[in-house]
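$ ./design --mode recover --in tokens.txt
reading tokens...
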């Protein structure tokens, strides 16, 4: 039975690659807050200005746009693993990270970590861990698609080497192979539910049966690739259908993300339980989200996207 009133958080989603229709779907599904980690846009950037504009959009326009559709938007700022392999550019991006990390709505350094597990990826992962430590920030760690177990263990060992508290680190994109290692070491384990690859939501239920709900969270990582913005919602519904107690569903699809990222002091439940009213005529640097229609809120109430 669908519980439409359940509040959900998607702690890893790339709305930059998504449309306003997706924000409407999330809103209708009960997603009250989202976290958008900085990532690779699919095509390597060639100048530091592209990073600057991207980071600015995460703390600016994207935050505003989500808010206009009733969703509180937070982000993580970081240099992704893939683009860490361009050393000259990576050096310039390092200068930007501390400036953006301190802005409103930035709840973590991320997503950072290893992908092909190159020396340059490790170098800039370490540099950003040092920034996180200095600023006492939460960290979101992307784990590799290939040699996942080895890369995940290595990522955690490097955190420990840098004196980072595991309770401030969310290790993302886990599966059955990595869950135990991550939880045993006291890190947060996030599971990305993809429609085709990595974790599916049936497997997620087995994970809960094996490991319980402590330090575990579910996300969609929805981006420009094959992904589903409603992954957290659909997983929560499947869990309820399969008899997972609602309190456990709430923990992995809401509370744990809030507890982990709430350590930033910039993400609080009252942000969405007592939000300031949405003025859909509001402007962000001279622009509204309206494209001809008179009201964005009418768009939500009239839409039949999610049943
Ligand atoms: Zn991502």
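writing sequence...
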């Amino acid at each position: 039975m669908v519980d439409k009133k359940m509040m959900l958080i998607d702690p890893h989603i790339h709305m930059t690659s998504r449309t306003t229709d997706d924000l409407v779907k999330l809103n209708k599904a009960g997603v009250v807050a989202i976290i958008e980690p900085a990532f690779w846009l699919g095509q390597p950037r060639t100048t530091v200005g592209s990073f600057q504009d991207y980071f600015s959009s995460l703390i600016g326009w994207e935050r505003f746009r989500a808010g206009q559709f009733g969703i509180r938007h937070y982000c993580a700022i970081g240099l992704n693993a893939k683009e860490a392999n361009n050393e000259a550019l990576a050096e310039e991006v390092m200068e930007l990270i501390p400036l953006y990390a301190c802005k409103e709505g930035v709840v973590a350094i991320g997503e950072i970590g290893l992908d092909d597990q190159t020396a340059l990826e490790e170098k800039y992962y370490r540099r950003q861990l040092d920034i996180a430590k200095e600023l006492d920030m939460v960290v979101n760690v992307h784990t590799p698609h290939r040699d996942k177990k080895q890369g995940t263990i290595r990522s955690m060992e490097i955190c420990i080497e840098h004196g980072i508290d595991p309770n401030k680190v969310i290790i993302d994109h886990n599966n059955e192979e990595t869950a135990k290692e991550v939880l045993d070491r006291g890190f947060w384990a996030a599971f990305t539910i993809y429609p085709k690859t990595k974790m599916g939501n049936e497997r997620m239920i087995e994970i809960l049966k094996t490991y319980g709900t402590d330090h575990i969270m579910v996300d969609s990582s929805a981006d420009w690739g094959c992904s589903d913005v409603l992954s957290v919602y659909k997983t929560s519904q499947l869990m309820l259908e399969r008899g997972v107690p609602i309190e456990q569903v709430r923990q992995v699809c809401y509370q744990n993300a809030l507890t982990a990222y709430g350590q930033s002091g910039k993400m609080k439940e009252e942000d969405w339980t007592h939000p300031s009213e949405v003025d859909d005529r509001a402007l962000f640097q001279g622009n509204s989200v309206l494209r001809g229609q008179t009201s964005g809120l009418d768009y939500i109430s009239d839409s039949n996207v999610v049943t």
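exit 0
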